[in-house]
Task: inverse folding
């Protein structure tokens, strides 16, 4: 690694640490219903929102009621988005005259599910598919709503550990409203202005046609980019206004905006660990979780940056300089923006896949096998390496329950965590959430890697989008091979990455796969629903059971969970579960590709 790469990591984690304590303490006050400095400005809006919704924010919901409210809210917003996308041709703010032809049924389903689940997977090119209304209303509303739901679920799970002999875990509507008004809104207002100051456009102008220096014609897409960019990153959504996402100069103009984006993505996921510590009455517990997340994150960053900086044997065999120097970056620059270089690009890849944020500033498909393995593995862990807003914390708490269960087996005692006995039901719910994610990724990957759809008949339509510039209308191959730009190990990695991204609610892609077909739109859509809701509901059930329990006194046999030892155990559990579950798949993909690359280089 270069000195600049090491300095970048030090600066990044330093800023993240500075943010974690104050933002985390602030969020604890917000969700405990305490008054903050923004209540004088936003308190009236909060109360008015409750009146419009007909909600009593003091009503304490059981976990079942909380779950139903969350599911009904998500279903309503999903249906609204699907309808808005299909009807965009008759809706306002559409100077490009995009309509239902650009957003057919299967693509509208995939997109509506994607944004509802905080995945923001994009099987389409936004700047040639979506109207301004679709971007700002149908989709951007989910950048707020899905992020607020994720935070609310995390807070509900925290209450399960913090409360004693309680029947409820909070009020879903109050948590969503408070998360939106007091957390997301003020940060977005400031961050949006900063993005505009850095050169990100914010307007409603039609696309501009220009003549290039060579005399050619070019259409420059414009629009309300800054307002979507900030909530896209803060809410760990990731769906870009442009198809090139954060590699586009209008979304990410400079090295400064790149660093700012990286900070924004992990700001809430990092801070909510301190919120956890504050709400359970022991900030060391939050720092233990933060430490485990940071250790996993740093390990991935070091591996990914080192692999990309080292380049490939093919470059060395071609006598291309792979060592960084004052004149050129060295290493593997394929698929990376020269504005950022290798280290900031690889750091971006690990940050965006450590969180459930699909934003990208480089082409992950062009990474070296080991460099590409890191973002893939980040998602396969359940995206607990800080993770999405809220999702990272409740995912890591799931692993914490498993970790104390394992520790309890070691010492022959009933495991305890935050003063609560972890018994059969809690372990079952944690294991159910873990297995559901693995089953989704591996089942859909295996199916898409082996199934052959017929050339004719009704099922053939699953693999093609006749008459479309985006589909494979000439494809006569199976669901996997007919839509891949690469065969062999790398092609398998593209399929595995797609379903890991969908199930992990990330949204990034290796992009060597043509996913905009009915088959992939439907199956990835199902994977996104499974990864979001079949993980959330078991964890809410676990929180409800824990909230009813009284707190047990600490004894000499209690395994301390606020120490570096527990953080190390937590890291080990995440790695072991990930390795045992996904090692065969990773072996067929990036690992075998790495050895194939080395073997080819020797010939």
Result:
């Amino acid at each position: 690694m270069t000195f600049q790469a090491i300095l970048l990591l030090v600066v990044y984690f330093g800023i993240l640490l500075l943010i974690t304590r104050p933002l985390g303490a602030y969020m604890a006050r917000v969700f405990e219903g305490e008054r903050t400095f923004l209540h004088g400005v936003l308190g009236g809006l909060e109360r008015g929102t409750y009146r419009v919704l007909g909600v009593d924010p003091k009503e304490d919901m059981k976990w079942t009621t909380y779950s139903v409210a969350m599911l009904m809210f998500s279903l309503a917003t999903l249906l609204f988005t699907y309808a808005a996308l299909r009807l965009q041709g008759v809706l306002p703010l559409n100077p490009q005259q995009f309509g239902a032809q650009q957003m057919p049924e299967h693509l509208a389903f995939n997109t509506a599910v994607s944004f509802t689940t905080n995945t923001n997977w994009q099987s389409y090119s936004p700047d040639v598919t979506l109207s301004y209304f679709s971007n700002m209303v149908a989709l951007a509303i989910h950048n707020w709503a899905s992020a607020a739901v994720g935070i609310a679920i995390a807070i509900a799970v925290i209450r399960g550990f913090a409360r004693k002999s309680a029947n409820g875990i909070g009020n879903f509507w109050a948590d969503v409203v408070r998360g939106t008004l007091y957390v997301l809104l003020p940060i977005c207002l400031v961050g949006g202005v900063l993005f505009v100051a850095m050169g990100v456009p914010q307007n409603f102008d039609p696309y501009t046609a220009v003549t290039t220096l060579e005399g050619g014609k070019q259409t420059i897409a414009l629009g309300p980019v800054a307002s979507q960019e900030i909530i896209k990153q803060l809410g760990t959504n990731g769906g870009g206004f442009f198809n090139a996402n954060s590699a586009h100069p209008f979304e990410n103009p400079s090295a400064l905006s790149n660093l700012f984006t990286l900070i924004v993505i992990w700001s809430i996921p990092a801070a909510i660990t301190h919120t956890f510590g504050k709400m359970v009455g022991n900030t060391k517990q939050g720092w233990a979780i933060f430490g485990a997340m940071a250790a996993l994150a740093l390990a991935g960053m070091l591996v990914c940056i080192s692999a990309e900086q080292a380049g490939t044997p093919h470059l060395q065999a071609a006598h291309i300089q792979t060592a960084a120097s004052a004149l050129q970056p060295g290493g593997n620059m394929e698929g990376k923006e020269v504005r950022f270089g290798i280290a900031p690009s690889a750091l971006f890849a690990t940050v965006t896949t450590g969180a459930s944020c699909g934003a990208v500033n480089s082409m992950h498909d062009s990474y070296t096998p080991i460099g590409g393995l890191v973002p893939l593995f980040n998602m396969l862990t359940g995206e607990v390496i800080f993770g999405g807003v809220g999702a990272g914390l409740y995912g890591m708490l799931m692993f914490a329950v498993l970790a104390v269960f394992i520790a309890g087996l070691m010492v022959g005692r009933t495991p305890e965590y935050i003063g609560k006995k972890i018994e059969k039901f809690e372990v079952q719910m944690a294991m159910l959430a873990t297995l559901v994610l693995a089953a989704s990724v591996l089942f859909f990957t295996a199916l898409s890697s082996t199934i052959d759809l017929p050339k004719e008949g009704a099922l053939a339509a699953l693999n093609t989008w006749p008459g479309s510039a985006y589909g494979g209308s000439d494809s006569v191959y199976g669901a996997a091979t007919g839509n891949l730009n690469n065969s062999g190990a790398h092609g398998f990695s593209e399929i595995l990455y797609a379903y890991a991204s969908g199930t992990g609610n990330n949204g990034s892609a290796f992009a060597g796969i043509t996913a905009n077909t009915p088959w992939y739109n439907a199956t990835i859509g199902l994977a996104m629903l499974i990864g979001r809701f079949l993980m959330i509901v078991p964890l809410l059930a676990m929180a409800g059971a824990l909230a009813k329990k009284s707190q047990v006194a600490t004894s000499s046999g209690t395994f301390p969970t606020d120490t570096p030892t527990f953080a190390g155990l937590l890291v080990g559990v995440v790695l072991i579960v990930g390795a045992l579950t996904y090692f065969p798949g990773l072996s067929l993909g990036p690992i075998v590709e790495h050895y194939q690359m080395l073997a080819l280089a020797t010939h």
Observations:
- The CA atoms of residues 337 and 594 lie 24 Å apart.
- DSSP finds 17 helices and four strands in the chain.
- The beta strands are 208-211, 217-220, 416-417, 420-421.
- Confidence is low (pLDDT under 50) at residues 464-481.
